[in-house]
Structures are given as C-alpha cells and as structure tokens.
Automatic annotation (TrEMBL):
Family as reported in the entry's similarity comment: Belongs to the class-II pyridoxal-phosphate-dependent aminotransferase family. Histidinol-phosphate aminotransferase subfamily.
InterPro entries in the record: Aminotransferase_I/II_large, HisP_aminotrans, HistidinolP_aminotransfase, PyrdxlP-dep_Trfase, PyrdxlP-dep_Trfase_major, PyrdxlP-dep_Trfase_small
Source species taxonomy: Bacteria, Pseudomonadati, Campylobacterota, Epsilonproteobacteria, Campylobacterales
Entry-annotated residues carrying N6-(pyridoxal phosphate)lysine: K226
PANTHER family: HISTIDINOL-PHOSPHATE AMINOTRANSFERASE, HISTIDINOL-PHOSPHATE AMINOTRANSFERASE 2
Protein name, as recorded: Histidinol-phosphate aminotransferase
Keyword Amino-acid biosynthesis: yes
Quaternary structure and interacting proteins, as annotated: Homodimer.
Length: 363
C-alpha cells in the first residue's frame, strides 16, 4: 500500500517508557520514572477531588464551549474568553498553528534542538524546516535565518524554556525579536514550562496579556501537564488575538477535550498550595543535579524547567540509559535528537537519591 510520501521523512515521536512494562520486563519491584517531566508530586489535590466528584459526567459529551475553564484562564491572564482556545494538550494547538499557516511551499523556523512535535507536524504537510546551527535559542542567528528565508518562513517557534535542553531567553530579548518580524509570520511562544522559568527568574516571565496586546501575530501556549500534574488528562491552551483563535477554531474537532479534563484543569488552576510546593521543591532538588554534574565533570545547560540535561563526551547516553533502565530508573535518552545526552526529570527527594545512587555506580 502506498502512503503520502511525506511520511518517509518523519520520525515517530518517542514517548516515555511505561512503568508497569519495565517492572515486568526486568522483574523489578520498584520503578522510578524521570523521563517525561511529569509532576513528581502527582495530581493537584483539588483536581483529584474534581475528577472524583464529576466522574458521573463521563457518559456525557463535554460542554464544547468550555466556558468555565476559558473564563478562569481569561481572568488569570486578564484577557477575554475570545482570546482563549483549549486543546487536547498544547501540542494539539501546535498542530493548529502549522495547519493554519503552512503548506508544502512554506517553511517554519526554530532553534537547533527543540520540541520534536514542531517538526513532526510540519513534515506531515511537506513543510520545509529551518534550524539554527546553535542548539539553543540564539536570537541573532534566528533573525539572520529569518531575513535570509523571509519569503518562505511563515511560522516561528520559540520554546521558552526550551524542551529538551532547558535554557530560556529573557522577555526583553523575545519582545525585541518579535518587533522585527513581519506581521504575516505567526510566532508561537511555547510556554509549557514558563511557570518554572518565571519562578526562578522574573526576567524570563512571559505575560500572555502583554504579549497579545502588543503583537497581533503571536500565540502563547500553556499546558496543565507539567506544573499542574495533569499529564494524563491531556489538556492545554492557547492565548492570542481573536483573529488567530477564530482561524484555529476552524481546525478544531468538536468535543476535543473530555469533561473530566476540563473539571480537573479548572480546579488545578487555583490550587496555589500545590503549585508553590511543586515550584519550590523543583529548584531545591535541581541544585543536587547541578552539584552532581560539577563533581563528576558532566556538562549541562542551566535549566529553567522541571528537568536537567546532561551531555557526555566519552560515555554513551544510550548505554547509560539502558543500564539505568535495568535498575528501575527511567530517564530520556536524547540520541533521537542527535545528542549524546540524557534528559532527567526532577523527581522527589527519594526518587532523586535513588537516581544518584544507581547512576554513580554506572557512571
């Protein structure tokens, strides 16, 4: 059977390994997953309560206006409900952005290494991909590439902070860059981890209201999968001017987010105790990973997220990852990105101590 020829150039996205399958495969009683940047403290207690209390709604189609959650997000960011779109994860809105602006004659721009789904969605349409030589976001290099291929580039992705590397631009750099870009080019600010960056350094904070009030060609993406502990509920959002939101709505399937996901996200949004606990403990534990790297002369990029990436010269990241896996520690090998590196989610104090214990033996 023949398929669309674009599929030949697409790599399948590698998701995190399943805990139960790993336990069964290696006969392990305990498996610690530090691979998918999930919240190590689980589900927001308020979200969990909302899921239980609304379980009886599972047989009904959800409210397709998503009015309750939209209003909560609008209040949080001081925008209008018409500026909000809800997706099945923020990656669904990435897909909307690509389909709304690109086809096989167009291109998009990103830094050298960033979230894999940008490229996967783009190549489904035969879209050309431009990447900087720099792995991280180099604003000058991004702008030089944009100027060179300005007629082709109709979407620019800025992942702030960047997944899977963890670095983050300052807000002033971002705004100065956007000001130089043509208004017909859509700029996607992927803020999946921006709450972490904002907590660590206020200069990294991107305010969606300020962003869309100043620029008509920008969409800000957020998610409930990381900070709010709802990765399994698959829910994210986009904030943009009404013109962009209206265009995205033409690509949205009805009932794309479940009843329970909407209720859980609404409750999690205001669980301030859980949010603060997550942010505070994340960066307290991050310090141990930084100290470990320095002690063992492992290269890393300062991270503004809930993960850290280790780079290796002599050691092989695949070998290290597989040996850890057999000990019940799951981390993310970045060989699929062309990097001899691993990405490690910041876990609880216990989970991290187990990682250091096993990794020290192997390393």
């Amino acid at each position: 059977m023949e398929f669309n020829p674009f599929l030949k150039n697409i790599k399948t996205y590698e998701s995190g390994k399943d805990i139960e399958l790993i336990a069964k495969e290696f006969g392990l009683k305990e498996v610690i997953k530090l691979a998918s940047n999930e919240n190590p403290y689980g589900v927001s207690p308020k979200a969990k309560e909302a899921i239980i209390n609304n379980a009886h709604l599972a047989y009904l189609y959800p409210d397709d206006t998503m009015s309750e959650l939209k209003q909560a997000l609008a209040d949080k960011f001081k925008v209008q409900k018409e500026n909000i779109i809800i997706g099945s994860g923020s990656d669904q809105i990435i897909e909307y952005a690509i389909h709304a602006k690109l086809d096989h004659s167009k291109a998009y721009l990103q830094c050298g290494v960033s979230f894999a789904m940008y490229e996967i969605y783009a190549k489904q349409l035969g879209v050309k991909v431009y990447k900087t030589q720099s792995l991280i976001h180099d604003i000058d290099e991004l702008y030089e590439l944009y100027k060179k291929y300005k007629n082709d580039i109709k979407v620019i992705f800025l992942c702030l902070p960047n997944n899977p590397l963890g670095e983050c631009l300052d807000k002033t750099q971002v705004f100065e860059f956007i000001e130089k870009i043509d208004e017909d080019c859509l700029i996607v600010i992927d803020g999946a981890y921006n709450e972490f960056a904002s907590f660590k350094d206020k200069n990294k904070h991107i305010n969606p209201q300020e962003l869309i009030n100043k620029f008509i060609n920008v969409v800000y993406l957020g998610t409930f999968s990381k900070l709010y502990g709802l990765g399994g509920m698959r829910i994210g959002y986009g904030v943009a001017c009404k013109e962009i939101i209206d265009a995205f709505y033409k690509l949205r399937a009805p009932f794309n987010v479940t009843n329970l996901s909407l209720k859980a996200a609404y409750a999690a949004l205001n669980d301030e105790e859980f949010i603060f606990k997550t942010l505070k403990n994340n960066f307290l534990q991050m310090k141990f990973f930084e100290d470990f790297a320095k002690k063992n002369k492992i290269s890393y990029i300062e991270s503004y997220t809930n993960f850290i990436t280790y780079f290796f010269d002599e050691k092989n990241s695949t070998d290290l990852s597989e040996k850890l896996l057999k000990k019940g520690i799951i981390i993310r090998n970045l060989q699929s990105y062309g990097l001899n590196a691993v990405r490690i989610s910041i876990g609880t104090e216990y989970e991290n101590s187990r990682f250091f214990e096993e990794f020290s033996k192997i390393f």
